[in-house]
Amino acid sequence: MSRMLRLVPLLLISVLSGCAGLTNSTSFREMSSAYREVLEQYSNDNVLLNIVRASKSMPVSFLDMPSVTGSGSVSNQLQFGPSIQGVAPGSSLAGFFTPVSGSGFSAGATLGVNNSFNFTQSSLDNSSFMVSFLSDLKPSAIASLSNSENATRDVLFSLAIESIEGRDLQGKTLVHYFNDPYSPKFIEFQRMLYNLVRAGITIEQTQGMMPVSAPMDGETVNRNLQGVATAISLPGTALVPVKLAGGRDGFQVMRMMPPDARICLQQQAADEQLSFRVAQSAYCKSSKSGNVAIDKSKPEVTLIIKLRSVRNVFEFLGSLVNIQNAPDQRVIKVVDSEIVSTNATIEEIYAKSKPLFIVKRGTIVNDALMAVNYQGTSYSVPRDDKNETYTKQVLAMLSQMLTLTKVPGSIPLSPAVLIK
Q: Whole-angstrom Cα distance, residue 368 to residue 96?
């Protein structure tokens, strides 16, 4: 029995050590998973809350979490000792005793686990963020967004384009369509956007050259050879052939400009889909072909496409929230250019298309994708596991647009709010 008693502490220590290691590992994994889930929900709720604010014409406000610090600890304690009730009479050997009935040994083990997160919340209400947030989206930003797997051109341009204007060669405005869901002519904008998507509207990367010197003939280059060599030694600078007055061959020092982006149309698709033609400069360089005949029976129109700011995208989505939750409810859909039918009208195509963005107001949606409460009213986004709407695409694009506005310096280094 004494041997077994000697083994009890060793067994308890072994078990306690193993549990401590297992608990510590499990605790860290659970903390990390919980943090990821909370941060995802935090970001989603922040986006939805500001859409709701925009629907009520209230100021929007954004918070960000620039840092999160987690800490965890595991403590354990082992207790082991005899419990002697008394000594039996008749113990005859010095230094030894015989415990009476009821005596024994007791052992105990305690294990404590502690974990916590410290995180900072920084307000983005500063000039660095707001200048970018209120500025119109650049074609380069649209090019980045179009690389997303979630992006379809119908949805992306429905969010990003504010208006489309057509002018004749004299500069007179022929048509002007606004991407305003409140307008009775909203369907006209959607018809134009549908035609442009079918005409291959896209974003093209361009790179131009800036002259560094005046055009020179060969003799001038030879006389200034040292200066020319110094100039073209700079990165992105080269001596390129040009045509001089009278058709003579010459040279000019040119410098490559930073890459830029522009909106353009695919030439063949545009000629087939549009009832008008655009200038050759409006076609994407990669789609130009000298074999395509120009249909001069169509009037030439200059298209002016104005892009929204990210702030205006929030206002547009806020308008959709109001329209679909008004007494005369209606749902704004995206005219899907993938629905191919030569005889279908735009109204028939619209009827088959999916809603752009769905938010339920004042009703509790079971298992909602996200939900917020603003001024005593609940707003929730249905989960939409069958992808019957473009809601999840819209939220993904809006989150990416918001990220593109976070220029260096827009997130303060020192937090505005510290929560522990």
A: 73
Helix, strand and coil content of the chain, in percent to the nearest 5, comes to 35, 25, 35
Taking the chain (420 residues) in runs of 10, the rounded mean pLDDT of each run is: 48 49 55 72 87 93 70 58 54 51 56 61 76 91 83 91 92 93 92 91 85 89 89 88 88 86 89 87 78 74 94 96 91 84 76 92 83 92 90 92 77 44
The reported pLDDT for the residue numbered 169 is 87
* CA gap 245, 311 in Å, rounded: 50
Q: Could you write out the DSSP letters of every residue in 294-312? A: P-TTSPB-EEEEEEPBHHH
Question: How far does the chain reach from its first CA to its final CA, in angstroms?
Answer: 53
Position 43 scores a pLDDT of 82
| Burial of residue 57, with CB atoms counted within 10 A of its CB: 0-12 exposed, 13-18 middle, 19 or more buried | exposed
Q: Which long-range contacts (CB under 8 A, 24 or more apart) does 186-193 make?
A: 187/346, 187/347, 187/350, 189/163, 189/164, 190/335, 190/346, 190/350, 191/335, 191/346, 192/164, 193/154, 193/157, 193/158, 193/161, 193/164, 193/335
Contacts of 354 (CB under 8 A, 6+ apart): 333, 334, 336, 388, 389, 390
Rg of the chain over Cα atoms, rounded to whole angstroms, equals 35
Question: What distance in Å separates the CA atoms of residue 287 and residue 285, rounded to the nearest whole number?
Answer: 5
Q: Is the CB of residue 33 less than 8 Å from the CB of residue 93?
A: no
Contact between 333 and 339 under an 8 Å Cβ cutoff? The reply is no
Q: How far is CA 166 from CA 159, 175, 304, in A?
A: 20, 5, 6
Q: Which helix (H) or strand (E) holds 361?
A: strand 360-361
* Cα-based distances in Å from 230 to 89, 112, 225: 112, 72, 9
How far is CA 383 from its chain centroid?
19
Question: Residue 49 to residues 46, 123, 393: CA-CA distances in angstroms?
Answer: 5, 15, 17
CA distances from 136 to 77, 104, 142, 162, 396 (A): 63, 82, 11, 10, 19
Q: Does this model's pTM top 0.85?
A: no
